[in-house]
Amino acid sequence: MANKLAFEAVDRTLKDIVSYTQHEAAHLPFGGKTILMGGDFRQILPVVRKGKRPDIVLATLNRSYIWADCLVHTLKQSMRVKNQTVEGNTNINNKTFNKWLLQMGNGTLPMVSREDEEEPTWIEIPKQHCVPVTTDHISDIIAHTYPDFINKWNDEVYLKERAILTPLNDTADEINEKMFNLLPGEHSTKRSSTTFPRMNKDMKKNNAVPMTTKTTNSFKDSALHE
């Protein structure tokens, strides 16, 4: 979820742009434009560097002046659980997990605290919702999430029902690499172009920094294709 300051910046920008021709827009939310925003306060809140709970709460959208002008629509049913195609024990486990997630979001789960903390801010995840791991955690998670992957790697329904989430790009790359190596057939890698035009006089005049192939290949940003 984005910081409330990002939404407020968009609000002020649209007011400035639209009010150039429509003066009354300067007093309307987002310059009178309809904005559709999506998010879940039960999930990942804005990240505040070195911030504590009060800082994170103050950074959320519902603590912004914009919130008073928002019309909130909420989902009443878990479409993931309703429309799933799995059956048997897996279906029951998914419903149990969904119920546990709702309890966590509603704040009704018991809280625990660590030895150096006064306020309990932690919850214990039930063992049935955890993946048993050995020394190779990633391989264990892959085997648990994608059982019989070697025979079902091209099964569209099988793949749509599963996903592994991670907050770090490096971990995502490692997971992708391991799963890629499980695919049958010969592997090949098609990389993007990493060559740059030669430095000309204008570039040197503007103090442009020459880029090498080694430098570009070192970038690991999620928005850049390798």
Automatic annotation (TrEMBL):
Protein's UniProt keywords contain Membrane: no
GO biological process, any: telomere maintenance
Listed Pfam families: PIF1
Main enzyme class: isomerase
Cofactor: Mg(2+)
Residue ranges constituting the DNA helicase Pif1-like DEAD-box helicase domain according to the UniProt record: 1-111
Keywords associated with the record: ATP-binding, DNA damage, DNA recombination, DNA repair, Helicase, Hydrolase, Nucleotide-binding
GO cellular component: plastid
Single GO MF descriptor: 5'-3' DNA helicase activity
InterPro entries xrefs: DNA_helicase_pif1-like_DEAD, P-loop_NTPase
Chemical reaction(s) catalysed: ATP + H2O = ADP + phosphate + H(+)
Subcellular location: Plastid
Main location: plastid
EC numbers for this chain: 5.6.2.3
Protein family: Belongs to the helicase family.
Protein name: ATP-dependent DNA helicase
Native organism: Cuscuta campestris
